[in-house]
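Query structure, 83 tokens:
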């Protein structure tokens, strides 16, 4: 299971997400309580920002080619589910 935080700006996209929820492929959480520096909110202290950067530099990376291949597969899968 993976949790994503997204901002949906198009009504048809929201309808597609609700369709996936009805089929029990996803679960929509209305109020996710996430504390992430990458999301809007209060500013980080310099110490916290440096720690976040250090953690990001140590994290496992994926090549852009590999990411594009994975995304293409997931995109096809999502398109099949919403038709």
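Result returned for the query:
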């Amino acid at each position: 299971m993976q949790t994503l935080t997204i901002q949906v700006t198009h009504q048809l996209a929201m309808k597609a997400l609700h369709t996936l929820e009805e089929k029990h492929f996803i679960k929509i959480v209305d109020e996710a309580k996430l504390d992430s520096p990458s999301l809007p909110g209060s500013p980080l202290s310099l110490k916290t920002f440096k720690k976040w950067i250090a953690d990001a530099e140590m994290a496992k990376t994926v090549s852009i080619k590999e990411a594009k291949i994975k995304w293409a597969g997931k995109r096809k899968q999502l398109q099949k589910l919403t038709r």
